[in-house]
Amino acid sequence: MTDVEQVDLLGRLREEVARCPYHDFLQLAAVSADAETRSVVVRLVNRPEFRLASAGDAIHGGVLAALVDVTGHAAVACATGRVSPTVDLRIDFLAMARGETLTATGRLLKAGRSIARADVEVRDTAGVLVVVGRGTFSTR
User: Fold this and answer.
1) Beta strand pairing status for 115-123 and 101-111?
2) Is 111 helix (H, G, I), strand (E, B) or coil?
3) CA 99 → CA 24, 75, 112, distances in Å?
4) Helix 3-17 to helix 61-80 angle, to the nearest 10 degrees?
5) Which of 24, 38, 85, 99 reaches 20 to 30 Å from 139, CA-CA?
C-alpha cells in the first residue's frame, strides 16, 4: 500500500468518525487505519460528562459501548468503502475503564455480501484491556 492510499484510508476513517452528531459529542479522534491488517484505531478522551459517578474517573458503560460500536463500524466501512449499519453488538466489560484516554482498536474479521463482522479491543491509558466487543454490520 502506498503512502497516498494509507492517507486516503485515514481520511475515510475520519469521515466515519465524524459522520453523526453523537460522534461529535463524544469528540472521538481517528488515530490510524491500516488496510493490510484491516484495522482502525480510535481514541476517546475521558470527560466529566462520561463519568459513572460525580467523584472518580470511571467511564459509564454506555459511552464504552458507543466507542466499540463506532470503532467496529469504522473498521468495516474503511474496508468496504461504504456505510455499514450495526445489526448486532456484543460488549464484554473486563475491568473498570479509567484514566485520561481510551484507545479502541477495531479489526475487520470478514466482510460478505450482506454481513460483516469486526472485533474491537478498548484499552485504558495504562494499556490495560478494559472492554472487548464484536459487532455485526450490514454491507448492503
Assistant:
1) antiparallel
2) strand
3) 21, 25, 37
4) 140
5) 24
- Residue 79 contacts residue 87 (beta carbons within 8 Å): no
Cell numbers for 62 = 454506555
What does the pLDDT look like over 28-73, one tens digit per residue? 999 999 999 999 999 999 999 999 888 888 999 999 999 999 999 9
- Over residues 25-29, mean pLDDT: 95
Instruction: With cut-offs at 50, 70 and 90, classify the pLDDT of residue 6.
Output: low
What whole-number distance in Å separates Cα of residue 107 and Cα of residue 126?
Answer: 21
Contact 19, 30 (CB under 8 A): no
Q: What is the pLDDT of residue 4?
A: 42
Question: Percent of the chain having pLDDT more than 70?
Answer: 95
Question: 85 in helix, strand or coil?
Answer: coil
